[in-house]
Amino acid sequence: MGTRVTDRTAGAQPDPRQALSGDAGDRVGPDPRATSGEVLVDLCLPDADVRAVPRARRLVTATVAGVTSRREPRADAAVVAVELLTNALLHAAPPVTLRLVADRGRLRVEVADASPVEPVRPRASSEALTGRGLLVVDALAARWGISSDGAGGKVVWAELDLADVAPAVRGAPPAAGRVADEPADGPAAVRALPLRAAAAGGPARYPVTLPDVPTDLLLDAKSHVDNLVREFTLAAGGAASGESGTVAAPLARLISVVTTRFAEARQEIRRQALAAASAGAARTSLRLALPLSMADAAEEYLDALDAADQYARAARLLTLESPPRHWAFRHWYISSLVAQLRAASRGEPAPVTPTFEEHLLGTLEEVAEARRAAERGARLQAVTAALAAATRPEQVAQVVLTEGVTALGASGGSLLVPRDGDLLAVPGAVGYPDELVAQLRAERRDADLPAAEAIREGRAVWLESVQERHGRFPGLRLLEPRAVSLCALPLAVGGQVLGALRFSFDYPRLFGLEDREFAETLAAQTALALERARLMAAERLARARVTFLEEATGRLTARLDEGATLRELVGLLAPALTEQAAVYLLEPGGGARLAAQAGGEAGGLDPAREATMGLAARGGRPVAAADAGSGGAGAVLAVPLRVHGETAGVLGLRRAAGTNGFSADERSLVSDVADRAAVALAHARTYQRERQTALTLQRSLLPQRMPAVRGVTFAWRYLPAGAGALVGGDWYDVLPLDDGTLALVIGDVMGRGIQAAATMGQLRASARANAAARLPAGMVLGQLDAAVSRLEQEQITTAAMAVLDPVAGTLRVSSAGHLPPLVVSPAGEARFVDVEAGPPLGVGLSDGWASYPETTVAFPPGSILLLYTDGLVEDRERPVEEGMTALRAAAAGVGGAEQLCERAVSALAPAGGNDDTALLAVSLSPGR
């Protein structure tokens, strides 16, 4: 900013330039606007920089001190200069010049600017942030006024009386222009100027008349805009000087538009309002003469003010948002002004301008409609937010109906969705009595009722009167006699109708366009929520189905037993999916046998009496019927059990009369379970056949009877594995030798099924042949090892052989990886034979052994020997050491071979074990 100071005082005066700037020696010639008095200060400000104000104050104070010794005039002059300068910087256009002139006992303050718009002294107001400057000037100055500078700008001046001003100052009259003299009845006031005429060569001006408006409203609105202009100017000035942050480009443009555009008309309106207020007029009619360019300026100015309000609401910069009445007023007068200007420029008659009250009523209607729209928008937003958490149709219904009934003013509402069959389900209702909800649940898709039609046709139904309701849907007379109006809207997604919204009104309801749009939007949101709930339900169902089928598969295949499998099947389905379930197996002669049932007596599902079961048995495909049982006893679902392409049986399910039939998803699930059950049934039957064959073979290979030997008693047990396991290869044998000794053999082929039984038979034959050749026990086991190697069996096989000499009372024992024999002494003490066990058969003898080691122990009369396989003392839950300890405890004190076997089995052999168990007990009579 450049500052030019001219000190024209004579004599030694303080240099006031030091109080303002440092560019001493910068002199300029006489100002053409100067009066004939002595110019004390001539300060030019090329930019509207408010930082110059405090420096100007110091300059004026120092200068006036050189011409008067009185403190009060010095302070008054400084205040007047500052107020006029600030007003010009805030509301006018640069450059701005401050001049101080002394003339014959008067001190004259002049502020010139480049704007032709004349300032207006407002009414005193506690709310205005601007306009007080002229009030202060009016109070302090003897006179003040406004003069044209002849170059398109103006000079605002004020004079103060100074009794001790130097008399050498030449006198001069005030500059030409208007003077605000003190009237007799009050403070000085600026008179309203007449309408400006078009300047020579200037643009044409057109008259604009605005109907009378409340004067107070006019002044308040203009004061608010003045406050806004002040804030804008200060913001721009602060940004330019670097004292505040940079103003954003959009806001900078707003500042420029608000402070410069439309200024002439704005000030003229303000001046006329002030004149009316001074005259005591409660209302003001505005008459203006404006160029056509002011129309575009007015619209730009209006848009800028609206944008400024947006900044104020966002609290980004401004704190002065327009009150609603001001907003309405400026939209009224600017739109009216623009319309009149453009019509006049085209030579057309002035359009009819509504009064401000008429405009305000129209605005109120728009606001009311906007409020209704906002309320409905808020409800829709609330519905959307609440529906985001709704995962089931019942939750969707509760949210939508609660908001919809309130927003539409309905007496009640319900949500209806199709279900399997021809009926409609009602996930939720609001405001309807229980009997009406029950009737809606009985509504069918083909019913001549609004919701059913909306679902069938896919379009909304609007009934606005009783006559229309009865004419289109006579059935509503009985269904809902109190309803006067009604609407039903389809809920469609992607062309698929998922249900209908139904609202009832107990008064005549006209559904306007906005009502219909709101209801249709609500229906669209409901449809999307229902579709999401349907997809989530399908996902939950799919997860539950997978879990259920996994559990079903595990339970159905846990035991290879036909009866257990079928009992598991009906137990899975009843009561989880049905009240009653039964399986009938088809007999070769054409009959059916009840194999398993759950949920009560299943006689009513007998294929001989139940048509649905008979159809499934004969046709080999699932059959479902609603209330198709005997005498309409309930819904029935029959699913065949197909084994190797043939129907082996029929699974039947029944639900009580009056309940829902079996849905498509339920029928599919039951069919999947039945398929798994059929596979498990086929496996069980195959296993049972193979097991029975292996068991028969094994028993045929075991000794059918024991030899009769004087003084020797035999006892034996063979316990096959439980139903869930195949028969193994356990065996035992007794062979009397020609030297009076007894060869005792026990073995365990650790395999399952027919193969293990066949291997056992071959090893038993080899052992008998080698024992009959009177080979020692160790060599017999050596031969069995070679035989296993020749058979190329992968199963581990163990065996033990004992040769009992009843006469000598000795026992020679050899073991190929088998558990040690148990001997009970005549005194009842049980102990295991400390035999040196060789490797199992088939793995080859180590260290080149030709035979297995033998151990000889005493076996006096009264002793009892027990040979056993590992199934007796070992299982999944009990280690072998623990089992052997239990066996020894059970054997202590027994009185014979039979009792020993009985105790061992009772104490150790688990029911339904997973391994075969073989026992052979031999005792010598005490008297031998």
From TrEMBL:
> Could you say which EC number(s) this protein's record lists?
3.1.3.16
InterPro entries recorded for this chain?
A: Bact_Sigma-Reg (IPR052016), GAF (IPR003018), GAF-like_dom_sf (IPR029016), HATPase_C_sf (IPR036890), HATPase_dom (IPR003594), PPM-type-like_dom_sf (IPR036457), PPM-type_phosphatase-like_dom (IPR001932)
UniProt keyword annotation of Plastid present: no
Q: Report the residue ranges that make up the GAF domain in this protein.
A: 392-540, 561-691
- Quote the catalytic activity from the record: O-phospho-L-seryl-[protein] + H2O = L-seryl-[protein] + phosphate
List, for all copies, the residue spans of the domain called PPM-type phosphatase.
Answer: 712-924
Question: In the record, which residues are listed under signal peptide?
Answer: none
Q: Report whether Magnesium shows up as a keyword of the record.
A: yes
An example Gene Ontology molecular-function term: protein serine/threonine phosphatase activity
Annotated region Disordered: where?
1-35
Q: Which UniProt keywords apply?
A: ATP-binding, Hydrolase, Kinase, Magnesium, Manganese, Metal-binding, Nucleotide-binding, Phosphoprotein, Protein phosphatase, Transferase
Q: Kindly give the Pfam families that the UniProt entry links to this protein.
A: GAF_2 (PF13185), HATPase_c_2 (PF13581), SpoIIE (PF07228)
Primary enzyme class: hydrolase
Instruction: Look up the domain of life of the source.
Output: Bacteria
| Role summary | Primarily acts as an independent SigF regulator that is sensitive to the osmosensory signal, mediating the cross talk of PknD with the SigF regulon. Possesses both phosphatase and kinase activities. The kinase domain functions as a classic anti-sigma factor-like kinase to phosphorylate the anti-anti-sigma factor domain at the canonical regulatory site, and the phosphatase domain antagonizes this activity.
PANTHER family of this UniProt entry?
STAGE II SPORULATION PROTEIN E, STAGE II SPORULATION PROTEIN E-RELATED
Q: What is this protein called?
A: protein-serine/threonine phosphatase
Organism, as annotated: Frankia nepalensis
